[in-house]
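Bumping my old thread because nobody answered last time. Still need a sequence for this structure:
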């Protein structure tokens, strides 16, 4: 019972995160990619 509850909770968190990602516009992904590239260059 507890295991099923824990797995369902993690699955709902992943679904919530996926829904949040789907609401992000493409521009935010471009800025995120640029930040990762700059971070990789400087750090």
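Sorry it took so long. Here it is:
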């Amino acid at each position: 019972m507890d295991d099923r509850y824990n797995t369902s909770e993690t699955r709902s968190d992943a679904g919530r995160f996926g829904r949040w990602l789907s609401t992000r516009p493409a521009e935010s992904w471009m800025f995120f990619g640029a930040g990762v590239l700059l971070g990789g260059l400087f750090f």
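Residues 2-42 form one domain. Let me know if any region looks off to you.
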